[in-house]
Amino acid sequence: MLKVIKGHEKSIADVIRTNLRKINREKCSWLKENSPITPTTDNNHDFYLYDDKKLIGGLLGHIQYGWWHGDCLWIDEEYRGQGYASKLMHQAEIYAEDNGLIGIYFETWDFQARPFYEKLGYTVFGELSDYPFGSTFYFMMKKLGTPHQRRLRALALKNGLDDFC
């Protein structure tokens, strides 16, 4: 007798993710060569902004499949409008380029930062309306360099040739 059970247990969720990853690796050679079968939490790469010892902003994200995904960008209200968010974004782009990543992507709502991201060269590649009701959720991305440039830069960094880059 089959039955569906609603719930959330990390150990069961990990089994499901691992099994799906095994199937995906069979179908995609890049995943087979570059992606672990078991889920990992070692891919977070965050940037924090301090004024002396006071945390005034941050940009949180993680790397997956050759892209850096920005999860959250926040600047303390007192420090907004002074270019700090742009500085954090620039640091993330440098980090992504230094690691040979394809690009960066974010999500933002219509009441948040779409014009800010567009000013930095990001483009909308998808949208979800009524998420939540009455609002639009945008998916934004920016590719970094050509694949050849990214490979050369990553290879140079791997070989300790920072000045070459």
What's this model, at a glance?
This protein is an alpha+beta fold and 165 residues long. Helices cover 35% and strands 28% of the residues. It has a six-stranded mixed β-sheet.
Structure overview:
This protein has 165 residues and is α+β, with helices and mostly antiparallel strands. It is 35% helix and 28% strand. The chain has five helices and six strands. Strands 1-2-3-4-6-5 form a six-stranded mixed sheet. Strand 1 and strand 2 form a beta hairpin. The longest helix has 18 residues. The radius of gyration is 19 Å and the shape is globular. 14% of the residues are buried. The model has no long low-confidence stretch (mean pLDDT 84).
Low-confidence runs? none
Cross-sheet strand order for the largest sheet: 1-2-3-4-6-5
Distance linking N and C termini: 61 Å
The count of β-strands is: 6
Tally of separate helices: 5
What portion of residues is helical? 25-40%
User: Helix- and strand-based class?
Assistant: alpha+beta
The average pLDDT value, as a whole number, equals: 84
Task: Tell me the radius of gyration.
Answer: 19 Å
Strand composition percent = 25-35%
Produce the secondary structure layout.
Blueprint lengths: L9 H18 L1 H6 L12 E5 L2 E11 L2 E9 L8 H15 L4 E7 L4 H6 L3 E7 L6 E8 L3 H12 L7
Parallel strand pairs: 3-4
Antiparallel strand pairs: 1-2, 2-3, 4-6, 5-6
Main features:
single chain; 6 strands; alpha+beta; 165 residues; six-stranded mixed sheet; globular; 35% helix
